[in-house]
Amino acid sequence: MAEIRIGGLERLSLCDWPGELVATLFLQGCPWSCGYCHNPHLIPPRAETGLDWQAALAFLSGRRGLLDAVVFSGGEPTLQTALPVAMRQVREMGFRIGLHTGGPYPARLAAVLPLVDWVGFDVKAPFDAYADTTAVPGSGRRARDSLRLLLASGVAYQVRTTVHPGLLDAAALARMQAELDQMGVVGWTHQAFRPQGCTPDALAALDRLRRPATV
Length: 215
Description:
With about 220 residues, this protein is α/β, with parallel strands linked by helices.
Protein backbone atom coordinates (compact mmCIF):
# COMPACT_ATOMS: atom_id res chain seq x y z
CA MET A 1 0.00 0.00 0.00
CA ALA A 2 1.34 3.41 -0.96
CA GLU A 3 2.00 5.89 1.86
CA ILE A 4 1.30 9.16 0.10
CA ARG A 5 0.73 12.46 1.87
CA ILE A 6 -1.88 14.49 0.00
CA GLY A 7 -2.12 18.21 0.64
CA GLY A 8 -5.01 18.83 -1.72
CA LEU A 9 -7.23 17.47 -4.48
CA GLU A 10 -8.60 19.24 -7.55
CA ARG A 11 -11.51 17.05 -8.60
CA LEU A 12 -11.63 18.40 -12.15
CA SER A 13 -8.96 20.43 -13.90
CA LEU A 14 -8.78 21.58 -17.51
CA CYS A 15 -5.37 23.26 -17.20
CA ASP A 16 -3.06 20.92 -15.27
CA TRP A 17 -2.53 18.77 -18.39
CA PRO A 18 -3.41 20.78 -21.52
CA GLY A 19 -6.06 19.05 -23.57
CA GLU A 20 -7.00 16.47 -20.92
CA LEU A 21 -9.74 16.20 -18.32
CA VAL A 22 -7.90 15.35 -15.11
CA ALA A 23 -8.05 15.14 -11.37
CA THR A 24 -4.98 16.64 -9.71
CA LEU A 25 -3.42 15.33 -6.52
CA PHE A 26 -1.29 17.93 -4.73
CA LEU A 27 1.31 16.01 -2.76
CA GLN A 28 2.73 17.44 0.44
CA GLY A 29 6.35 18.56 0.68
CA CYS A 30 8.93 20.39 -1.40
CA PRO A 31 12.70 20.80 -0.82
CA TRP A 32 12.73 24.25 -2.42
CA SER A 33 11.31 27.56 -1.14
CA CYS A 34 10.49 29.64 -4.20
CA GLY A 35 9.32 33.09 -3.14
CA TYR A 36 6.55 33.21 -5.72
CA CYS A 37 5.08 29.84 -4.71
CA HIS A 38 1.29 30.19 -4.49
CA ASN A 39 0.97 26.91 -2.56
CA PRO A 40 3.39 27.56 0.33
CA HIS A 41 1.30 25.35 2.62
CA LEU A 42 2.50 22.40 0.54
CA ILE A 43 6.20 23.03 1.24
CA PRO A 44 6.51 21.47 4.76
CA PRO A 45 6.69 17.68 4.25
CA ARG A 46 5.11 16.89 7.64
CA ALA A 47 2.29 19.41 7.65
CA GLU A 48 -1.17 18.17 8.56
CA THR A 49 -3.14 16.87 5.58
CA GLY A 50 -6.85 16.32 5.23
CA LEU A 51 -7.07 13.47 2.70
CA ASP A 52 -5.54 10.04 3.00
CA TRP A 53 -4.49 7.82 0.10
CA GLN A 54 -7.31 5.33 0.43
CA ALA A 55 -9.88 8.15 0.30
CA ALA A 56 -8.18 9.51 -2.83
CA LEU A 57 -8.34 6.08 -4.47
CA ALA A 58 -12.01 5.77 -3.56
CA PHE A 59 -12.72 9.13 -5.21
CA LEU A 60 -10.79 8.16 -8.35
CA SER A 61 -12.60 4.84 -8.55
CA GLY A 62 -15.84 6.76 -8.95
CA ARG A 63 -14.38 8.83 -11.79
CA ARG A 64 -13.47 5.94 -14.09
CA GLY A 65 -14.72 6.69 -17.57
CA LEU A 66 -15.29 10.35 -16.70
CA LEU A 67 -11.68 11.56 -16.47
CA ASP A 68 -8.82 11.03 -18.88
CA ALA A 69 -5.99 11.10 -16.40
CA VAL A 70 -4.64 11.87 -12.95
CA VAL A 71 -1.89 14.44 -12.42
CA PHE A 72 0.49 14.16 -9.49
CA SER A 73 1.46 17.71 -8.55
CA GLY A 74 2.67 19.45 -5.44
CA GLY A 75 4.65 20.56 -3.65
CA GLU A 76 7.16 18.30 -5.33
CA PRO A 77 5.75 14.80 -5.97
CA THR A 78 9.13 13.11 -6.33
CA LEU A 79 9.94 13.98 -2.72
CA GLN A 80 7.68 11.08 -1.72
CA THR A 81 9.39 7.71 -2.07
CA ALA A 82 6.05 5.88 -2.48
CA LEU A 83 5.25 7.80 -5.66
CA PRO A 84 6.00 4.89 -8.05
CA VAL A 85 3.66 2.58 -6.10
CA ALA A 86 0.92 5.22 -6.09
CA MET A 87 1.27 5.81 -9.82
CA ARG A 88 0.99 2.09 -10.55
CA GLN A 89 -2.17 1.86 -8.46
CA VAL A 90 -3.76 4.74 -10.35
CA ARG A 91 -2.67 3.38 -13.73
CA GLU A 92 -4.23 0.00 -12.88
CA MET A 93 -7.52 1.86 -12.48
CA GLY A 94 -7.35 2.82 -16.16
CA PHE A 95 -6.11 6.39 -15.88
CA ARG A 96 -3.25 7.97 -17.78
CA ILE A 97 -0.62 9.58 -15.53
CA GLY A 98 0.68 13.13 -15.54
CA LEU A 99 3.42 14.61 -13.36
CA HIS A 100 4.35 18.15 -12.37
CA THR A 101 7.95 18.45 -11.21
CA GLY A 102 10.83 20.86 -10.84
CA GLY A 103 13.35 18.02 -10.96
CA PRO A 104 15.07 18.23 -7.55
CA TYR A 105 15.57 14.45 -7.43
CA PRO A 106 16.93 13.17 -10.77
CA ALA A 107 17.19 9.51 -9.69
CA ARG A 108 13.61 9.48 -8.40
CA LEU A 109 12.38 11.12 -11.58
CA ALA A 110 14.15 8.44 -13.62
CA ALA A 111 12.31 5.78 -11.61
CA VAL A 112 8.85 7.15 -12.43
CA LEU A 113 9.35 8.24 -16.04
CA PRO A 114 8.37 4.76 -17.35
CA LEU A 115 5.05 5.16 -15.48
CA VAL A 116 3.99 8.57 -16.79
CA ASP A 117 2.44 9.73 -20.05
CA TRP A 118 3.17 13.44 -19.73
CA VAL A 119 5.34 15.74 -17.59
CA GLY A 120 4.94 19.42 -16.85
CA PHE A 121 8.51 20.46 -16.04
CA ASP A 122 9.14 23.76 -14.26
CA VAL A 123 12.35 25.55 -15.16
CA LYS A 124 12.95 28.27 -12.60
CA ALA A 125 15.88 30.32 -13.87
CA PRO A 126 19.19 30.07 -15.71
CA PHE A 127 20.65 26.90 -14.24
CA ASP A 128 23.59 28.64 -12.57
CA ALA A 129 21.22 31.12 -10.88
CA TYR A 130 18.65 28.72 -9.48
CA ALA A 131 19.43 29.43 -5.84
CA ASP A 132 18.17 32.99 -6.30
CA THR A 133 14.71 31.47 -6.75
CA THR A 134 14.79 28.19 -4.82
CA ALA A 135 17.03 29.30 -1.92
CA VAL A 136 18.86 25.96 -2.26
CA PRO A 137 22.50 25.79 -3.51
CA GLY A 138 23.04 23.27 -6.30
CA SER A 139 19.37 23.12 -7.26
CA GLY A 140 20.09 24.24 -10.83
CA ARG A 141 22.40 21.26 -11.44
CA ARG A 142 19.73 18.85 -10.23
CA ALA A 143 17.07 20.49 -12.37
CA ARG A 144 19.28 20.35 -15.46
CA ASP A 145 20.09 16.67 -14.86
CA SER A 146 16.38 15.90 -14.46
CA LEU A 147 15.45 17.77 -17.62
CA ARG A 148 18.06 15.81 -19.56
CA LEU A 149 16.53 12.57 -18.29
CA LEU A 150 13.07 13.72 -19.33
CA LEU A 151 14.19 14.70 -22.82
CA ALA A 152 15.98 11.38 -23.30
CA SER A 153 12.96 9.38 -22.13
CA GLY A 154 10.67 10.25 -25.02
CA VAL A 155 7.82 11.07 -22.61
CA ALA A 156 5.59 13.94 -23.78
CA TYR A 157 6.29 17.15 -21.87
CA GLN A 158 5.71 20.83 -21.43
CA VAL A 159 8.55 23.01 -20.16
CA ARG A 160 7.26 26.11 -18.43
CA THR A 161 8.61 29.01 -16.38
CA THR A 162 6.92 31.35 -13.95
CA VAL A 163 8.11 34.83 -14.85
CA HIS A 164 8.38 37.31 -12.01
CA PRO A 165 10.06 40.57 -13.12
CA GLY A 166 12.02 40.78 -9.89
CA LEU A 167 13.70 37.45 -10.57
CA LEU A 168 13.85 37.11 -14.35
CA ASP A 169 14.66 40.08 -16.55
CA ALA A 170 15.04 40.03 -20.32
CA ALA A 171 18.69 39.01 -20.12
CA ALA A 172 17.92 36.07 -17.85
CA LEU A 173 15.13 34.91 -20.15
CA ALA A 174 17.48 35.11 -23.12
CA ARG A 175 20.03 32.96 -21.26
CA MET A 176 17.34 30.44 -20.43
CA GLN A 177 16.21 30.30 -24.05
CA ALA A 178 19.78 29.58 -25.16
CA GLU A 179 20.21 26.85 -22.52
CA LEU A 180 16.92 25.16 -23.40
CA ASP A 181 17.62 25.36 -27.13
CA GLN A 182 21.00 23.74 -26.59
CA MET A 183 19.37 20.90 -24.67
CA GLY A 184 16.84 20.31 -27.43
CA VAL A 185 13.71 21.53 -25.66
CA VAL A 186 10.83 21.98 -28.10
CA GLY A 187 8.45 24.66 -26.93
CA TRP A 188 8.74 26.74 -23.79
CA THR A 189 5.76 28.25 -22.00
CA HIS A 190 5.89 31.41 -19.90
CA GLN A 191 3.49 31.65 -16.95
CA ALA A 192 2.77 35.02 -15.40
CA PHE A 193 3.45 35.34 -11.69
CA ARG A 194 0.26 35.12 -9.61
CA PRO A 195 0.28 36.69 -6.14
CA GLN A 196 -2.71 34.64 -4.94
CA GLY A 197 -1.65 32.34 -2.14
CA CYS A 198 1.88 33.68 -1.72
CA THR A 199 2.96 34.53 1.80
CA PRO A 200 3.10 38.29 2.50
CA ASP A 201 6.78 38.14 3.47
CA ALA A 202 7.70 36.36 0.25
CA LEU A 203 5.76 38.85 -1.83
CA ALA A 204 7.43 41.76 -0.07
CA ALA A 205 10.85 40.29 -0.80
CA LEU A 206 10.00 39.84 -4.46
CA ASP A 207 8.67 43.37 -4.69
CA ARG A 208 11.94 44.69 -3.28
CA LEU A 209 13.79 42.78 -5.98
CA ARG A 210 11.51 44.23 -8.65
CA ARG A 211 12.00 47.86 -7.63
CA PRO A 212 15.17 49.62 -8.82
CA ALA A 213 17.63 50.53 -6.11
CA THR A 214 17.61 54.14 -4.91
CA VAL A 215 20.70 56.17 -4.11
